Amino acid sequence: MGAELTRATLLARSGKVAAAVVGVSAFGGLTSHASAAVPDGDLAYARLLVALELLSLDFYTRAIGAGGAGQLELRRARGAERRHYDLAAAMLTEAGQVPATAQDIDFSYPRGSFGSRAAIARLGVRLESLSLGAYLGAVRSLQTPLYREHAARAAASEAQHLSVFAAAVGGRRLGPPLPAALPIAHVSDALDAYTS
Fold first, then answer.
1. DSSP letter, residue 170
2. What is the CATH number of the domain that holds 128?
3. What is the pLDDT of residues 101-138, one digit of tens each?
4. Which residues face 31 on adjacent strands?
5. Domain limits for position 42
6. Is residue 18 part of a domain?
7. pLDDT exceeding 70 applies to what percent of the chain?
8. How far is CA 167 from CA 83, 115, 157, 160, 170, in A?
9. What is the DSSP letter of 100?
10. Contact (Cβ atoms closer than 8 angstroms) between residue 49 and residue 81
C-alpha cells in the first residue's frame, strides 16, 4: 500500500465502528452514549444558555456593524460568545436534542441601543451582567461536573467583557468580589425583554 498511516487515516478507518459505541464529546472527553444521560436540569440550563449566547452574538454583531472605536475588542468578545454557544449547544446535541440557532429567535432592543458607543456600552453592561449571573447560576445548579467547569470558565470570560463595558461607561472596571449567581427563572424573564 505504501500510504503513511496518519492520525486522520486511523480515525477515518476506525471511526465508523467506534461511532456506534462511543462519541467524542465537544467538551473534550469521551462519553458513552449508554451512560450519557444528562439530567433534565442541566438540559434546561443548556437551552437557556444557548438562547443567552444567541442574544450575545446578535448584540455583538450589531455593535460591530455600528462601527466606531473598540472593534477589535468587540470582535474578540463575539468570538468568545461563539465558543460559549458551541459548548452550550453541544450539551443539547449530546443528549439528542437540537439546539436553537440564530434563525429561531428574533431579538429586539430598546430604541437607540446602537446609536452611539455610549449606548452600546450601557447595553453591553446590562447583557454581560446578565450573562455573568447566568453562568454563575449554572455553576451552582449544573449536576454534570464537566458542564459546571465550562460554565465557570465562561463566567470568567463574561466578567472580562463586563469589565470592558463598565469602564467605557465610566463605571468601575473591577466589579464586586463575589458577583451574584442568578436563578434560571430570573435569567429567563430577563431574556424575554429582548425577544419579539
1. T
2. 1.20.1260.10
3. 999 999 999 999 999 999 999 999 999 999 999 999 99
4. 23
5. 38-192
6. no
7. 82
8. 24, 19, 16, 11, 5
9. P
10. no
Unique residue bearing C-alpha cell 468601575: 172
DSSP state, residue 112: T
In a domain, 21, yes or no: no
pTM for this one?
0.80
pLDDT at 170 over 80: yes
Angle between helices 184-192 and 40-65 (to 10 degrees): 40
**Does some domain include residue 84?**
yes
The answer to whether the CB of 90 falls within 8 A of the CB of 26 is yes
Q: Write down the pLDDT at residue 12.
A: 36
Partner residues linked to 23 by β-bridges: 31
Of 5-19, 99-113, 175-189, which gets the smallest average pLDDT? 5-19
Residues 122 and 132: their CA atoms lie apart, in Å, by 15
pLDDT, mean over the chain: 83
Tell me whether residue 19 is in a domain. Answer: no
User: What's the total number of domains in the chain?
Assistant: 1
Place of cell 453591553: 124
Share of the chain above pLDDT 90, in %: 71
* Nearest C-alpha neighbor of 53 from the set 111, 4, 18, 104: 104
Q: How far apart are CA 17 and CA 32, in angstroms?
A: 14
